[in-house]
Amino acid sequence: MLTGQCFCGAVRYQAAERIRNQTLCHCTLCRRTTGAPAVAWFTVATDDFHFTAGEPSSFRSSSHATRTFCPRCGTQLTFADDDSPGEIDVTTGSLDAPEQALPQSHVFVADALHWPDDLPRYAHSRTSPSGDS
Ligand SMILES: [Zn+2]
Ligand SMILES: [Zn+2]
Fold first, then answer.
1. Which tens digit of pLDDT belongs to each residue from 29-55?
2. Residue from 8, 6, 11, 2 nearest 56 by CA
3. pLDDT tens, 80-119?
4. Which CATH architecture has domain 2-111?
5. Higher pLDDT pick, 6 / 131
């Protein structure tokens, strides 16, 4: 069983381990709705996914899709496409153990930001050795 929650913990969910389509999405909708350059997702059957605490809010992110998020802290949690009613996509970053859904592909690379990847790397913040952020 996979479990996850929003940042503040008001909304929790569980999903069966029968997941697929683990991917990093670079589309402009994922970018705009999260503020992140790319978003990791996995797909699970709707029958295998349940919210176990709290009540997410939702909005239409296109004419055919609905996204949910925590109304208190804003963490985006799910994506459901009207054209695929039997399945739901879940943000990998909201899992309690994101390593359980390792991305296997990149999608919408045509929309990806072309940022350099050879930047300096710091174990924590550039200025704080404590790791606080
Ligand atoms: Zn929350
Ligand atoms: Zn996307």
1. 999 999 999 999 999 999 999 999 999
2. 11
3. 999 999 999 999 999 999 999 999 999 999 999 999 989 9
4. Beta Complex (2.170)
5. 6
Cα angle vertex 24, ends 72, 75, to 5°?
0
Nearest ligand by distance to the CA of 68: 1
What's the gap in Å between 69 CA and the centre of ligand 2? Answer: 15
Centre of ligand 1 to C-alpha 75, Å, is 6
Q: Among all ligands shown, which has an atom nearest to the Cα of 81? A: 2
**Distance, CA of 129 to CA of 113 (rounded, Å):** 29
**Cα of 133 from ligand 2 centre, angstroms:** 26
